[in-house]
Amino acid sequence: QVQLVESGGGLVQPGGSLRLSCAASGNIFNIYDMGWYRQAPGKQRELVATITSGDSTNYADSVKGRFTISRDNAKNTVYVQMNSLKPEDTAVYYCNAKIERVGSRLINAYWGQGTQVTVSS
C-alpha cells in the first residue's frame, strides 16, 4: 500500500505564510510527478503547482510569484511554501503523486487526505 500524509495547514492572516508538507510511504519503487491541488467550498478541485522528478515546476496563474513547490526525493516528500496568502487561497489542499509500486510496472496516482488552509483576519 501507498499513503500520502499532508501536514502544515491552519489559520493564517492575510499576507501571512504557511508551508505544507506531504510525505509518501509504503512499498514505493519510484515517484514521478508530485503536486498540490486545492478545493474551496462549492468549487471544483484545481491545480496549484506540480513538480517533476527532474524538478521542473508548473504553477497556477493565481499563485505564481507567491507559492513555491519543492521536493526532497530522499524523504519522498513534497512541499509548498505559500507566501502573501490571500482570503481566496482558503481551501482544502491535497497532495498528489504518481507512484510506481515495488513489483508493479504500473504508475498510479495517489491522493492525500487533505489539509485545511484558512486565510482570514
Distance between the termini: 40 Å
Main structural class: mainly beta
Shape: elongated
Mean pLDDT: 97
Order of helices and strands: EEEEEEEEEEE
Individual helix count? 0
Number of strands: 11
The Rg value, from CA coordinates, equals 14 Å
Helix content estimate: under 10%
- What is the percentage of strand-forming residues? over 45%
- Main sheet characteristics: 7 strands, mixed
The low-pLDDT segments are: none
Descriptive report:
- The protein has 121 residues and is mainly beta.
- Strand 5 (46-51) and strand 6 form a beta hairpin.
- The strands form 2 sheets. Strands 2, 4, 5, 6, 9, 10 and 11 form a 7-stranded mixed beta sheet that branches.
- Helices cover 0% and strands 60% of the residues.
- The relative contact order is 0.33.
Write the layout of secondary structure elements.
Elements: E1 2-7, E2 10-12, E3 18-26, E4 28-39, E5 46-51, E6 57-59, E7 67-72, E8 77-82, E9 91-101, E10 107-111, E11 115-119
Parallel strand pairs: 2-11
Antiparallel strand pairs: 1-3, 3-8, 4-5, 4-9, 5-6, 7-8, 9-10, 9-11
Concise account of the structure shown:
The chain contains no helices and 11 strands.
Give the key terms.
121 residues; mainly beta; seven-stranded mixed beta sheet; four-stranded antiparallel beta sheet
